Amino acid sequence: MSGVYIHIPFCARKCAYCDFASWPGRQADWRRYVCAVEEEIRAVGGGPAETVFFGGGTPSLLPAEWLCGLLDAVRETFALAADAEITLEANPGTVSPDSLALYRQAGVNRVSFGAQSANDALLRAIGRIHTWAQVEEAVRMAQDAGLENINLDLMYGLPGQTVRDVETALLRAMALGARHISCYNLIVEPGTPLARGVERGEIRLPEEDAQAEMQRAVCETLRKGGFERYEISNYALPGWECRHNINYWLRGDYFGFGCAAHSLVDGVRYANPDSLDAYLRGARQTDRETLAEEDVRLETVMLGTRTRWGADISYMKANALEPLVRSGFARICAGKLVLTDAGWEVHNAILRQILE
């Protein structure tokens, strides 16, 4: 299996926690950037592809016809499967019935909305520019356009957030008809406005125990709603898992296009520059690495143990496995170590045990 990722690095406003390669404004560069990405796509030799993912930034900020043009370039370059999963990341407030109809007509069949919370005060606290009412409106417009495969991104561990806030967001997301929910623990990335606020004591995050309680509430609430946890932060109704991300976690090949995009093809990883200006000047694949056997082992274990499919025990320290199983942190199925919910809570500590 192989996938195609297209990075759109533009956004309306940078969120307080974001350290992604994204830039607010810069409308003068939008068209030039899209042309450069299309040129990059067409320069690739092609091959089969089963998924396409437009990520960002905020892809839906750009004119819909431009993104549809990029998808045409993918189809003309790659042998795209007839049942390909084609995902568009979007922010509430940046889509309309017309744009969603264009996406659907072009072949987009999955939309991922950055909802983050159902509490408008919490959204303002992290720099989001939408409201929960706009999330509801965006989801309904997408459904009216025939897009039923909808993911909502949510977060926990936000400043001032409670367990009840988390549960409320999940219940509202399920009530909207989301088939997939990603729920991430807020990470304070160095150099972000959030990090500076925490360092100065102006922003207080929930205590570690409270965040652990939120995580358990996420698992329990979604499980009761019929969602299955198939990766540490990802939950889906049966049959609605994100095929594109599964390919990443199982280390399939993928081609990345655009500023800061990464690729893994035939054991070689390469990346475009994370500088928008450098990319626009024509810099491509400035970082290239043929993965050594040890790199493959580490990645296979690190990524595989994040999923319900697990990772091959032959890559791990044999004497570390039985204690994990005995303690309820993992089970061994068909030669794979599969972590339980309890194991996922201490994933990093388990990695140290099985890899050192």
TrEMBL record:
Gene3D superfamilies: Aldolase class I (3.20.20.70). GO terms for biological process: porphyrin-containing compound biosynthetic process. Residues 1-228 form the Radical SAM core domain. InterPro entries: Aldolase_TIM (IPR013785), Coproporphyrinogen-III_oxidase (IPR034505), Elp3/MiaA/NifB-like_rSAM (IPR006638), HemW-like (IPR004559), rSAM (IPR007197), rSAM_sf (IPR058240). One of its GO terms (molecular function) is 4 iron, 4 sulfur cluster binding. It holds the Pfam family Radical_SAM. It comes from the Bacteria. One of its GO terms (cellular component) is cytoplasm. PANTHER family: COPROPORPHYRINIGEN III OXIDASE, RADICAL S-ADENOSYL METHIONINE DOMAIN-CONTAINING PROTEIN 1, MITOCHONDRIAL. Belongs to the anaerobic coproporphyrinogen-III oxidase family. HemW subfamily. Probably acts as a heme chaperone, transferring heme to an unknown acceptor. Binds one molecule of heme per monomer, possibly covalently. Binds 1 [4Fe-4S] cluster. The cluster is coordinated with 3 cysteines and an exchangeable S-adenosyl-L-methionine. This is Heme chaperone HemW. The lineage of its organism: Bacteria, Bacillati, Bacillota, Clostridia, Candidatus Alectryocaccomicrobium. The gene is hemW.
